Amino acid sequence: MTKTVPMTPPGEAASRADATRARIEEEADRLFRSMGYQKTAVADIARALGMSPANIYRFYPSKSAINEAIAERMLGAMAMELDAIAGGPGTAAERLRRLFSTLFEQKLAAFFAERRLYDMVTAAMDEHWGVIERHLGRVHAAIRRIIEDGMRAGEFAAGLEPGPTAHLAMHAMLAWNHPAHLETCIARKGQTPEELRGQVAAMTGFVLRALRP
To answer: How deeply is 174 buried, as exposed, middle or buried, from its count of CB atoms within 10 A (0-12, 13-18, 19+)?
Structure first.
């Protein structure tokens, strides 16, 4: 008699695979933050999880691919916070101030309070620009939404083109949001977070004056 081998339901197998990917990402994230991205090898991640490196490679083709997934998740959480501000209470000007302030604080906390995250994000910018581009697209959409609301409410000039104007606003705030620029300000120029917050507030005021009727 032929013995029937029970089959794992497809949904259950997919769920297990997702759970394993989540474990790999969480452990890699922990090691990247504690040891540094460059110093962490796939073998270190496998050892911490009690797996073989070959098992890690079943789910991710490289350490870089793991970092891409972590960056996607981290930047997605940041974008959700910005989406909430864009669709939240307050005038358009108030929301734009909150959004620019939050953008800066996110970068400061993520990339400099935990310095080794800077290496992870720099690697993602070099190797996985698509992840960064999708994040920038969500930032642009949040700013555009606020500008459109401000135009409808009469807070901002009626003749603005929301898309290009949102891009200009993003470029105006670039020095306080690009990791390399922030590193120059903090590590090389010795500027304090309070000094940079004052600059963010001043530039936000400049942008708002440009948007008003």
So the answer is: exposed
